[in-house]
Amino acid sequence: MKKIAFSALLAATLLGASEYNFEISPMAGYAFPSGQHLDDHGVYGAEFQYNGVESDIKPELSVLYSNADYDNSNLDTDIFRMALNGVYNLTPSNGVTPFVKAGLGYETMSEHAFDNHNSAFADAGAGLKIALAEQVALKLEAIDMVKFNNYSWDNNLLIMAGLSFAFGEKAQPAAPVAAAPEPKPEPVAAPAPKPAPTPAPKPVVAAPIDSDKDGVFDPQDKCPNTPAGFKVDVDGCPLKATLHLNFSTDSAKVDAEGTAKVNEFAAFLKESPAYKANIVGHTDSTGSDKHNQKLSEKRAEKVKAMLVEDGVAAERLTSEGMGEKMPVATNKTKAGRAENRRIEVELCQ
């Protein structure tokens, strides 16, 4: 149980990272060059990612430094690399967010031996972000840099690790400003009332009849044969109520707003004893299928227990979980996942 709770905390932490505009990641690792007459060498630098764009692909600026020895010589060279990449985050799972990236850059070398020159390069890579705290994650990645040098293609494979720090929380949309109320007109004194005429005597009318005893008299009753045990509308037809709740990620806790909805639905069921209700729990796609199935059942059982506590007979209620199998919105966005974490109720007689 502790392991599941900790995994859920990490998943929520990584989802929260997208709520920050900037990520800076000091990185260190090792380069394995091919075709440049260079020995394997250390790499140091930093990566800067901006999350404020309205796109799934986020821009990243990478700045790296190395000092490498040339093969079979006493020469070494300082290597500076700068690249602009696009980063795409895949769906997070159990606190881990995979990502892929690609872009273009430029490399300068202080010593141009063995026909090595300053040149542009293309790069592509993949990696993982593993949540450590609300705004801190361990970042692991592998990048392959390819350049055309001296009429041949040279490769540099970089393996790096570092810490990613998120900051600059995104601004929330401002609440609409309420319009100022219109001034009320000044009261005008009413004229003195005229003496009321003496009413003519009314004819005696027979008392109206309510044949199905639902509180709506027969002349206005559009459903005159409603069975006993149903709450009806102004036309005398049976009412149906709905219950729709949403939950936080990996949670079966019902907040104050949800509790008020459950209480209102319980009052409806007590006024309409002919109805039975099936409570159905749903989740988003975060986490495994097995975990989400258990979580959806837990949400449905929680709402059933609240209805019983409010005075609804337990034999009138059933509950089941559908896991992540029946989404009502996309699971690729935060808003869509929030809609999918829900409770729905099916009424039957």
How does this model look, in words?
The chain has 349 residues and is α+β, with helices and mostly antiparallel strands. It folds into two domains: 8-167, Porin; 218-348, 60s Ribosomal Protein L30, Chain: A, CATH 3.30.1330. It has four helices and twelve strands, in the order αβββββββββαβαβαβ. The protein has an eight-stranded antiparallel β-barrel with strand order 1-2-3-4-5-6-7-8. Strands 9-12-10-11 form a four-stranded mixed β-sheet. Helix 2 crosses helix 3 (289-309). The longest helix is centred in the C-terminal third of the chain and has 21 residues, at 289-309. The radius of gyration is 34 Å and the shape is elongated. Residues 1-16 have low confidence and may be disordered.
Determine the structural class based on helices, strands and strand pairing: alpha+beta
Backbone shape: elongated
Number of strands: 12
Give the distance, in angstroms, between the N- and C-terminal Cα atoms. 38 Å
Q: Treating each run of at least 4 consecutive H or I residues as one helix, how many helices?
A: 4
CATH class of the largest domain: Mainly Beta
Task: Detail the topology: elements first, then pairings.
Blueprint: H1 2-17, E1 20-34, E2 41-50, E3 57-69, E4 76-89, E5 96-109, E6 119-133, E7 136-149, E8 152-169, E9 245-246, H2 256-271, E10 276-281, H3 289-309, E11 317-321, H4 334-340, E12 342-348
Helix pairs in contact: 2-3
Features:
disordered N terminus, 4-stranded mixed sheet, 4 helices, 38% strand, 8-stranded antiparallel barrel, Porin, 349 residues
